[in-house]
Amino acid sequence: RNWHCFTCQKSYNRKADLIRHIKLHAGNRPFSCNYCHKRYTAQYSVSRHQR
């Protein structure tokens, strides 16, 4: 695993996954469910939640 989070030491195979993870530490969750308003870091997470 080549990409490491300096905050919690988690590691990821893809840089995009690390960037998504870092948003969790920053509290950046711009996507929300239209039904329950739970917030997510990525749109695909909202879609998965709504299935």
TrEMBL record:
Molecular functions per Gene Ontology: DNA-binding transcription activator activity, RNA polymerase II-specific; RNA polymerase II cis-regulatory region sequence-specific DNA binding; zinc ion binding
Domain C2H2-type residues, every copy: 3-30, 31-51
Keywords: Metal-binding, Zinc, Zinc-finger
Domain of life: Eukaryota
The keyword GTP-binding is assigned to this record: no
GO cellular component: nucleus
Presence of the UniProt keyword Metal-binding in the record: yes
Database matches in PANTHER family: RAS-RESPONSIVE ELEMENT-BINDING PROTEIN 1 (PTHR46451:SF1)
Protein name: C2H2-type domain-containing protein
Organism: Dimargaris cristalligena
